[in-house]
Specification:
- This protein is of the alpha/beta class.
- The protein folds into three domains: 5-123, Rossmann fold (3-Layer(aba) Sandwich); 130-232, ACP-like (Non-ribosomal Peptide Synthetase Peptidyl Carrier Protein, Chain A); 240-310, Alpha/Beta hydrolase fold, catalytic domain (Rossmann fold, 3-Layer(aba) Sandwich).
- It is built from twelve helices and ten strands.
- The protein has helices at residues 5-21, 34-37, 44-62, 80-84, 100-110, 138-145, 167-181, 187-192, 195-205, 217-232, 268-272, 292-310, and strands at residues 29-33, 68-72, 95-96, 117-120, 122-123, 130-131, 134-135, 240-242, 253-257, 277-281.
- α1 (5-21) runs parallel beside α3.
- The chain is flat, with a radius of gyration of 24 Å.
- The chain starts with a helix and ends with a helix.
């Protein structure tokens, strides 16, 4: 709820203030998201906050007051998609980023219609991303989602998790595989995908190689072991783990906090490149999840306990 409160409470406050101080207001506009109207795995809190804003707009219209909630798709030219996900040609949830002039034109139209909730988005080509007459390869598409511009110096054997894939990127990659390549994988499987494997899948689709995702019995066994590890770590048992070799004793300690999944495994490669005694904090059953402050205090206590053991 901490993620949702700022949007919900600010909209409620603006509604209350405008009713009292400017009852003749011409426009009351809030920005929602298509992830609210159409759903998006991993963004339930965000969807809840936007949905609450839309309900406030509906109540305002019922009371004879101006109100408009716009469910925007991905926005182009500025912001997260433009800066971190590859620019205006990035496909996000089956849509392309909507350029700013188009957004302003849509806003002008929406302000002249009576509905309390509307939506605006640019649908992507369902046949896959294209540049001119050339279809963009799966490898290039995934690299674009990860924000990687140069594939020449990349370690093709590194997993997507090791290359910095976060939960939102994972959702976009999952949608890309299902929509454009008829490949359904779980999030754990996607985390273990390597760029080399994506290249092989590309070659298989183009008739230049074997399209099977897993080729040998040894690979199948190894892959099953990897999935089992992730299954075991859905709720890790250890609140803090050593991430660097016990024999490599540095003068200073460093503590890394887990990403959104709650486990520290995806940061192992980073930890091994740091000249510190690196320890990873994980979200165990004992973690205090009532608020961010409670969780932070829990991790501080875990860190202090670890330091006291180290002396």
């Amino acid at each position: 709820m901490m993620v949702a409160k700022p949007k919900i409470h600010s909209t409620m406050s603006l509604d209350e203030a405008s009713r009292s101080f400017c009852p003749e207001l011409d426009f009351f506009v809030v920005f929602s998201s298509v992830s609210c109207g159409r759903g998006n795995a991993g963004q339930s809190n965000y969807g809840l906050a936007n949905s609450a804003m839309e309900r406030i707009c509906e109540l305002r219209q019922k009371d004879g007051l101006p109100a408009l909630a716009i469910q925007w798709g991905a926005i182009g030219d500025v912001g997260v998609v433009s800066e971190n996900m590859g620019g205006n040609e990035t496909v996000v949830g089956g849509t392309l980023p909507q350029r700013m002039p188009s957004c302003l034109n849509a806003l002008d139209i929406f302000l002249q219609q009576p509905k309390p909730t509307v939506a605006s988005m640019v649908l992507a080509d369902k046949g896959g991303r294209k540049e001119g007459n050339k279809t963009v390869s799966l490898l290039d598409h995934i690299a674009n989602i990860l924000g990687m511009k140069d594939l020449g110096n990349m370690n093709l054997n590194a997993s997507l998790a090791e290359l910095g894939m976060d939960s939102l990127m994972g959702i976009e990659i999952k949608q890309t595989l299902e929509r454009d390549h008829d490949t359904v994988l779980s999030m754990q499987e996607i985390r273990q995908l390597t760029m080399l494997r994506l290249k092989e899948m590309d070659e298989g689709e183009n008739g230049a190689g074997d399209s099977s995702f897993l080729k040998t019995s040894d690979e199948i066994i190894n892959y099953a072991d990897q999935i089992e590890v992730f299954y075991d770590e859905l709720m890790p048992k250890e609140p803090i783990v050593r991430m660097t070799n016990e024999n490599a004793a540095f003068e200073e300690n460093m503590f890394l906090i887990h990403p959104v999944e709650g486990v520290i495994k995806s940061l192992k490669t980073l930890a091994q490149k740091l000249n510190f005694n690196v320890y990873g904090l994980q979200c165990t059953k004992q973690a205090k999840l009532d608020s961010a402050a409670d969780l932070a205090k829990h991790y501080i206590d875990v860190r202090k306990n670890r330091l006291s053991v180290l002396g």
